[in-house]
Design goal:
The complex is a heterodimer of chains A (about 525) and B (about 425). Chain A is mostly helical. Chain A is about 50% helix and about 5% strand. Chain B is an alpha/beta fold. Chain B is about 35% helix and about 10% strand. The chains are: A mainly alpha (about 525), B alpha/beta (about 425).
Chain lengths: ~525, ~425
């Protein structure tokens, strides 16, 4: 059994270990001493000796000359586009593209609410994953301890089921992007695995193709994030700067991009009192602003002046300021391009997308329309699919059926991509250099899938056949290339398959599971 | 401030050095004798015969910013106790059951690292304090990237510092596991290195057993992956080489040697895996392993909480490794580093925030151990970086460069740490 060496575990609460103790205790909170209302923090030092220096006004993003729209799509564009917008296009999606064309297909995917998603029973497949729709009472009491054991596997399975079965493919890709961008490790502390269910459902999913400001606010006020980045413990005179730091560094403007250490400590002060608290008489944790924990003295952050007595508006004004900041536009634009287009973005691409973000006041649809524009996508470079994306891709293109028993925990753990298990706030990496060491596990998974040995997955009986009853070897392989690889198989790969079939397998490709597995392992299928 | 170097101490070092040199040759011959290459493995080369004197260098990266002031307690510095009202480890003369273990009259080990004391006393553990990488700031991700790439100038390199060390050797192409991590990914420090694999589980490493013609798979994969993107190609070729090699030593492993017992957590298993691959004699020269979870912003627990648990596991795994390798320990140098240390003063959550300088542990048969190498600034705020952090008084690159030069016969330190000229401080011989 392969073991997965967990990534960094940022949170260091000991927590409680026994089930009884968890139910009895009110979460893993540190007992805090009484807050002395008399002491304030001298705003002129903010805890350090730096003189307060307002940051010079930042130049707004340079406007970019409009480029003549391209009227003819470049060769290979369809495959590139479909593989970025979806987890790997199904036959139906390829046909839809052929039918309505690029612009209309993109429009459809940018409007997920208009796409009906229960035709092939995705609701049916998610239904057994009961923790995802359980009440707090069920999670914490009536269906405990099952809920404890099932919360993480249910979330992981749901993620894969949606990636494979949802017709709202771009939407699910965006949810995945934001869950990495605003990463919370679901297993980090006792209650976070439950809070995380609501985190995805209420903070991320409603805004994944909505507005960035709304997303930022929803994340900042989510119990899961308050717990994960220690803002629970950030109270007046006993500051914890963890959330404030990551707000700048990871969520908005990016590392050292217009802020100083002073700004971080001032921001930490602004967010004192932002907590998740249990509502009395219930098992529900909700966001709560505790005025008695809040540092109400005046603050200064990146030139933003927050007079004394601001209360919850201190933090809100900072969030608003950062959401509107041009450096945020650039940072988000760069990350989106790296995930969807190329890990080495040209400056003109970043400028275009940043402008779209900035001019639309953080409208994610408008921004993604730019990211997936012909002008930008035609300069896409190949990327290595990350393990979950690879598995989803294999299942989609083979039209495998999956049920909720699907045994994806082990493969995803051994490949290091178990959903919501990245321990640091930066989320799972995009760059292939991180993932390239795990090819053996991918090859093994492809073999297991083709041989029907992964529980909960089954390939249709016709999957491995050729186009006709008496197809030649070459016709079968070309058919597989067309259906399963959107024509991206290289000549060398094609020949290798033909040779393998002739020399090792007896020359009859149709129905040959081993040859089919070989096709699934091809490098062109690992890349997109 | 280091230990007083008494004359008798020096004589003992000399005697031990001679004895270790004898054992090194004997140990190497034993390793070769135990290993018989199957006939179908034509490319295996016993590189050690050609390149004597190269240690296995192991980078243990404590991810999160490990608190150096806990790992090596400055009990002789009164400011330490002022700054850490509840997190300080009691000085060795106190009556507390959790007092520090004195090392040299000023520094001590926390109780959770007690298992390392015999290794320290044997001269095989050297501690470097108030050290770090000056080109990082208090951001994990940025700091780790710069450290692993070996430079603050990120635009200038795409390879890891250890990868560049290996590349400079220009080794002939041969089937070997040159470098590894016992994890599912290869850390940035090794990015760009050839013959490098992620090998989390030796016993499970291989193709699924249920195939009709497993022997045909490797040639097929080699054929198609040699056409792939260069990074993918390099990785898959290394993986295929490793499959052959691992197959040759997978069976017959009777567990750790000399009664060593590794902790059963990921770090312990990882160290055992490194030891196993090293003992198999397949040419391992570098290993990188991460130990995660040192970012103790809250409830640090240096005495009986989370940090104590991790330090105990760290110490026990290092001790087990040392026991497991026995006389071969003088063919190994382990550097335990972190991206930065932590704030001198504790915060409001019984934890510490990100800092600057920290502690580095160097272990090995040729470490100049039994001492703390440092230029201690004192913990008064006037002497601290930004008045809040332990500063860096010894550049960590000095230590890493010295290890590569003296223990790994490095041929191009200028490429390993571009733009930097290291000064050696006698941390290893």
């Amino acid at each position: 059994m392969q073991r997965f060496l967990k990534q960094m575990n940022r949170r260091q609460f000991i927590g409680v270990v026994g089930a009884g103790a968890v139910v009895a205790g009110c979460g893993a909170e540190e007992t805090l001493g009484p807050v002395d209302p008399g002491l304030g923090i001298d705003p002129s030092t903010g805890g350090g000796t730096n003189v307060i220096n307002p940051i010079d006004p930042v130049d707004p993003v340079e406007p970019v000359e409009p480029i003549d729209p391209i009227t003819e799509l470049p060769a290979g564009f369809k495959a590139t586009f479909l593989h970025r917008v979806t987890y790997g296009p199904t036959k139906e999606e390829q046909a839809r593209y052929d039918e309505i064309g690029y612009a209309a297909f993109l429009d459809e995917q940018l409007n997920p609410a208009q796409i009906a998603d229960d035709d092939d029973g995705i609701g049916q497949q998610l239904a057994p994953l009961w923790t995802l729709s359980a009440t707090n009472d069920e999670l914490m009491t009536t269906r405990w301890p099952d809920s404890w054991g099932q919360a993480l596997p249910h979330q992981a399975k749901a993620k894969l089921i949606r990636a494979v079965k949802s017709k709202r493919q771009l939407y699910e890709r965006m949810v995945d992007f934001w869950m990495d961008h605003f990463n919370v490790q679901a297993a980090v502390a006792p209650y976070v695995r439950f809070q995380h269910i609501r985190y995805e459902a209420q903070a991320i999913r409603p805004h994944a193709l909505g507005n960035f400001r709304d997303l930022l606010f929803a994340v900042a006020k989510s119990p899961a994030m308050m717990e994960y980045l220690d803002n629970q413990a950030n109270i007046r005179n006993l500051m914890n700067e963890n959330y404030a730091r990551e707000l700048f560094e990871l969520h908005t403007v990016g590392l050292n991009n217009g802020y100083t250490h002073q700004d971080i400590t001032e921001t930490a002060r602004a967010f004192t009192g932002w907590r998740a608290e249990k509502q009395s008489g219930t098992e529900v944790f909700n966001f709560q602003f505790r005025a008695d924990y809040h540092d109400n003295n005046s603050k200064r952050v990146m030139g933003l002046s927050l007079p004394a007595g601001g209360g919850i508006t201190d933090g809100e004004q900072i969030l608003d300021f950062l959401a509107s900041h041009p450096n945020t536009a650039t940072f988000i634009a760069t990350k989106l391009i790296k995930r969807f287009v190329t890990t080495s973005p040209a400056q003109w691409m970043i400028d275009r997308v940043a402008n779209a973000f900035y001019d639309s006041d953080g409208d994610i649809k408008t921004t993604m329309r730019e990211v997936l524009s012909v002008e930008i996508l035609q300069d896409a470079t190949t990327q290595l699919r990350r393990p979950l994306e690879m598995i989803a891709n294999m299942l989609r293109r083979t039209n495998a059926t999956i049920d909720s028993t699907l045994a994806i925990d082990t493969p995803l753990r051994t490949m290091g991509h178990y959903p919501y298990d990245w321990s640091t706030p930066d989320g799972y990496p995009t760059d292939k250099s991180f993932w390239v060491g795990g090819l053996l596990e991918r090859w093994n998974f492809a073999f297991s899938l083709a041989k029907g040995q992964v529980s909960g997955f089954s390939l249709p009986s016709a999957a491995m056949l050729g186009p006709g009853v008496s197809s030649t070897l070459e016709q079968v392989i070309d058919h597989w290339n067309d259906v399963y690889m959107t024509g991206t198989m290289t000549a060398a790969e094609r020949q290798a398959l033909i040779d393998y079939s002739r020399n090792v397998r007896g020359g009859s490709a149709a129905g040959d599971a081993e040859l089919f597995a070989m096709m699934l392992t091809l490098p062109s299928g690992q890349m997109m | 401030m280091s230990t007083d170097g008494s004359g008798s101490h020096a004589c003992e070092d000399y005697f031990n050095a001679e004895r270790r040199a004898m054992l090194r040759t004997a140990g190497r011959l034993c390793a070769l004798g135990a290993m018989s290459a199957p006939a179908w493995l034509p490319k295996l080369s016993f590189a050690q015969e050609d390149d004597p004197g190269r240690d296995l260098v192991i980078q243990v990266f404590l991810r999160g910013g490990a608190d150096g002031l806990t790992m090596c307690v400055p009990h002789g510095d009164a400011e330490y106790y002022s700054a850490r009202s509840t997190l300080a480890i009691a000085d060795p003369t106190s009556v507390s059951a959790d007092k520090a273990i004195d090392l040299d009259g000023f520094f001590g080990l926390p109780p959770a690292l007690a298992a390392l004391k015999p290794i320290y006393d044997a001269g095989e553990l050297a501690i470097v304090h108030a050290t770090g990488f000056p080109f990082v700031d208090r951001s994990h991700f940025d700091a780790m990237t710069r450290i692993e790439l070996g430079t603050g100038n990120l635009a200038s390199v795409t390879t890891g510092w250890l990868a560049r060390h290996l590349l400079a050797r220009q080794l002939p192409d041969a089937a070997r596991v040159l470098a590894m991590s016992p994890m599912t990914n290869i850390p940035l420090s090794l990015q760009g290195a050839a013959q490098t694999v992620a090998l989390p589980d030796v016993d499970a490493y291989g193709f699924d057993a249920s195939w009709d013609q497993p022997s045909a798979r490797a040639p097929f994969l080699e054929a198609v992956y040699s056409e792939a993107d260069s990074l993918i190609k390099q990785s898959s070729m290394a993986m295929l080489d490793t499959l052959s090699l691992v197959g040759s030593f997978q069976s017959g492993y009777g567990g750790p040697s000399h009664g060593a017992t590794y902790p059963s957590d990921d770090f312990g298993r990882g160290m055992e895996t490194i030891a196993r691959v090293f003992k198999a004699g397949v040419g391992l020269e570098v290993a990188c392993i991460d130990y995660n979870g040192w970012d103790h912003h809250a409830s640090q627990g240096p005495i009986s909480g989370d940090m104590a648990t991790k330090m105990t596991s760290l110490a026990n795994a290092l001790v087990a490794f040392r026991t497991d390798l026995d006389t071969d320990f003088d063919k190994v140098t382990i550097v335990v580093i972190s991206e930065f240390g932590r704030r001198v003063a504790q915060n409001g959550s019984a934890g510490t925030d990100h800092g600057t300088g920290g502690a580095m542990f160097v272990l090995g048969g040729n470490a100049n151990g039994g001492q703390v190498h440092t230029i201690w600034p004192g913990l008064h705020p006037d002497n601290l970086a930004d008045n809040i952090d332990l500063p860096i008084t010894i550049d960590a690159r000095d230590v890493l460069a010295e290890v590569l030069q003296k223990r790994a016969a490095a041929t191009n330190l200028g490429s390993v740490f571009p733009g930097y000229s290291p000064t050696f401080h006698g941390v290893v011989s």
